[in-house]
Amino acid sequence: MLSFWEKTSFTDYDYLIIGGGIVGLSTAAALAERQPDKRILVIERGILPLGASTKNAGFACFGSLTELLADLRVMSEEQLLALVELRWKGLLRLRQRLGDQRIGYEPVGGYELIDEQSVHNLEQLPSVNFKLFKLFKQTVFTLENDKIREFGFNAQYCKSLLFNNLEGVLHTGRMMKSLWQYVSERGVHIVTGCQVRELHEQAGKIRVACQSIAQTMVFDAEKVAVCTNAFTRELFPTLDIQPGRGQVLITEPIPHLRVRGAFHMQEGYYYFRHVGNCLLFGGGRNADFEGESTTRFETTPLIMDLLEEKLRHIILPNTNFRVAMRWAGIMAFGSDKQPIVCPHPTLPQVFLGVRMGGMGVAIGSMIGEQLADMMQHAS
Ligand SMILES: Cc1cc2nc3c(=O)[nH]c(=O)nc-3n(C[C@H](O)[C@H](O)[C@H](O)COP(=O)(O)OP(=O)(O)OC[C@H]3O[C@@H](n4cnc5c(N)ncnc54)[C@H](O)[C@@H]3O)c2cc1C
User: Fold this and answer.
1) pLDDT in tens, 271-282
2) Ligand 1 atom at minimum distance from 194 CA
3) 156 & 256 share domain
């Protein structure tokens, strides 16, 4: 039961955004920047965002050589370049909006370890650099084999090392916290611990039914953005979205850690970076695609053992380390790598911004801009 005060002050909005991850908050930020007088609500089911945005590795990257080549097998060159451009512009937008210091951005560069099985990809290095030159006006990937020894990698495994000076790392927690603060300062109302159960059109508005532990509640909005990524099928079961879990570990501080940068291996299925003097390592989804197509926030011995084994033999050979923490986040994939950004087919006041894949930190800010554009200009 609502009071008169609650009903008149809290239930009616111009824009309502479902999901408080990077896409939802970036959409709120873009709308609040363009239309500061509009009433904007973000509804998040977790106490903290509960998906991928506060669980990821914090790579500010747009694709390693072997990942881009794998993508070229399933999409056209034009589509791939458009996706790379979206990632790059998204990273620039994120950094410009929040500031490098606030998000802990470090321009340390990205690397890719090339093993025996991947060496043949190097033949295509000149042609990939040529394609990317159109976008970046510089050579993106260079060989830095001298650094294999400098970083202390196992040279039996790592036959070559590629470097990309346009990439970096950021502090995921500080980035999300400052994005949250940014939208709050602009008058966006954020409700957490509240799950959207259902939405439908009613009297020209969208009625959004939600539930928290303590109460059920209904909000009305002129326009709604659905930014629920891997969990979208709970609201719209027919969408082409599959969850993909990502498991991560971080070591305790390692004295004199030599690894500095954002590193990829095996088409981006493995990734590691420094966080201060700790090493964060994640991936391995390709070792158990079926088991990892889940929304369960759990780590598994299979993936964790694999990560530890690679850490011991490839990344930190001859170094003692202890794992300090392990966690999992949930991404969203589909039959292709393109995000879904469009009006809902039967609810024209509802807009979808979902299926961010494995580089949502990169594209999230631009997807927010695209959603804000659609919401602002739809009649
Ligand atoms: C381990 C891991 C490492 C990664 N590393 C990187 C990286 O280094 N660089 C990179 O660019 N990307 C990375 N990613 C991918 C990136 O984190 C995601 O693509 C991005 O965070 C997706 O953002 P989102 O806002 O679309 O989704 P999410 O962050 O999942 O946000 C969706 C939100 O919607 C909420 N929600 C869902 N259903 C409802 C509902 N019914 N009612 C209310 N709220 C709801 C959820 O609780 C969630 O908070 C990684 C992902 C993982 C898991």
Assistant:
1) 999 999 999 999
2) 43
3) yes
